[in-house]
Amino acid sequence: MRRAVIAFTAFLGGLIFLLAGPAYAGPADCQGLKGTLKLQGQPVNGAKIAVTTEGGQPVKEVTSNAQGAWDVQVDDPGKYKVTLDASSLPQNSEVRGGNNVRTPTVYEGNCSTVLFALQPKSAPGQPTQGEGGGGSTFWTQAAQLTFEGLNLGLIIALAALGLSLIYGTTGLTNFAHGELVTLGAILAYAFNVGMGLHLIPAALIAVIAGGVLGYFQDRLFWGQLRRRGTGIIAMMIISIGVALFMRYVFLIFFGGQTEAYAQYTAQPGIEVGPISAAPKNFVAMGVELLVLIIVGIALLRTRTGKAARAVADNPALAASSGINVDQVIRIIWTTGGAIAALAGIMLGLSQNLKYTMGQDILLLIFAGVTLGGLGTAFGALVGSLVVGLFIQVSTLWVPPELKSVGALAVLIIVLLVRPQGILGRRERIG
Q1: Contact (CB, 8 A) for 33 and 104
Q2: Keywords assigned by UniProt (predicted)?
């Protein structure tokens, strides 16, 4: 078995090396600008975007597609001017802040993402944000962004919960957890679009498949490394290799384009007080809350949950008291894989699918886990909600391109005051 693990690790490293070459040679085909236009979570189709050089020389004019996505390839790297035609937007929408011009820089072999934050247009005669007396509009926007922040925070919490449970029971900081999120979204897409199943049964099958993969991932790989006495640092580095491997496999089979599910892509928004959102957002938040509550109750009330908490506190003492530590860890991996797959599906509902979606959210997952307290399930929930709220609400004062800065700043400030996180426990070092 030891030779099998060494051979598999060597094969994994060699495959990563082979895949990394084409992956870095390929971005030359994607040198340009891209973006996605959404209004309250719904894609905006038919909006016109004009791209010129910094000196005003026309490059290309495109329109957003049914998923709200657009892209422009350019021949030379440098600074460009991107203008969104406000008259091509839906009648009830406008660009937040009124600035419909961006000046991004394209670097050689890379695509730069251009963000335009859209919001519902104010009623005639109603003051807009920034004008005198615009307090009511400001608070309406704050309520809308708070709702969107809670939605994002719950998605991050689902992904962070599995990562926190795995860390708590094994001590492993799993950098491949973001790819488990991507896998859930892609599996649901394959069953939904590829096989023609409705999204709901496709999502259920994808969640089960994510849990099965989590089980065998620990049984055949991580569990073997633990038995060999592989150190935590070495396993963390191996997880980075696993993440790269899975990411490039997704690129080969899924492709570098963005896709959407066959159902629930475009829904008319419904008004609930100052909040306007698609029905799928309310349903998704209900499902996310329900899953988090069920997992929380299971950790507190069931024998397996109590055993998991005992293993997290002291694996050696738990084993001496008769708890099968390997079995508990395997259950945690199964649960973590299933929850990560569900988080990927929910993320795919709120935005388009792409092979890097897990990588893009991984930093926020780590921020939520660290802010709440490493290894604590409820801390991951609290930390993720704080991160999601600050990301969305901060766009009231900062450009959307910098919206993650506020959440990371809060993370730094909290850890300076409380290094163990919001719900973490103090530990003696040395």
Answers
A1: yes
A2: Amino-acid transport, Cell inner membrane, Cell membrane, Membrane, Signal, Transmembrane, Transmembrane helix, Transport
* Segment (H or E) for 226: helix 223-227
Is residue 325 exposed (0-12), middle (13-18) or buried (19+ Cβ within 10 Å)?
Answer: middle
What's the CATH code of the domain at 105? 2.60.40.10
Bridge-partner residues for 292, per DSSP?
none
Name the burial class of residue 397, with classes exposed (0-12), middle (13-18) and buried (19+) by CB atoms within 10 angstroms of its CB: exposed
Identify any residues that bridge with 33 across adjacent strands, giving them in sequence order.
72, 112
Closest by CA to 151, choosing from 268, 275, 271, 264, is 275
Half-sphere exposure of 414 (CA within 13 A, CB side): 22
pLDDT at residue 178 is higher than 80: yes
pLDDT mean across residues, the chain: 80
pLDDT over 90 (residue 212) = yes
d(CA 314, CA 309): 9
Characterise 109 by phi-psi region: left (phi > 0), alpha (psi -120 to 50), beta (else): left
37, 169: one domain: no
Contact 355, 247 (CB under 8 A): yes
pLDDT digits (tens, 9 = 90+) for 263-305: 887 666 677 777 877 788 888 889 999 998 898 888 888 888 8
151 and 299 share a domain?
Answer: yes
C-alpha separations of 226 from 48, 170, 239, 295, 308 in Å = 55, 9, 13, 26, 17
Q: In whole angstroms, what is the distance from residue 214 CA to residue 208 CA? A: 10
User: Cα-atom radius of gyration of the chain, to the nearest Å?
Assistant: 23
- Do the beta carbons of residue 404 and residue 366 sit within 8 Å? no
Which ranges constitute the DSSP H helices of 351-420? 357-372, 377-393, 403-417
Residue 408, token pair as written in the block: 């990371």
Beta strands in 144-211 (DSSP E): none
Average pLDDT rounded to a whole number, residues 248-253: 90
**Structure token digits, residue 324:** 């099968």
Do 319 and 239 reside in the same domain of the chain? yes
Length of the chain: 430
Structure tokens at 280: 């799928």
Q: 114, 131, 166: which is the final residue of a domain?
A: 114
Q: Which domain, by its residues, includes 358?
A: 143-417
Tokens of 111: 């695509």
Quick one: which H or E segment has residue 78? strand 78-84
Phi, psi of 49 (to 5 degrees): -125, 125
3-state helix, strand, coil in the chain (%, to 5): 60, 15, 25
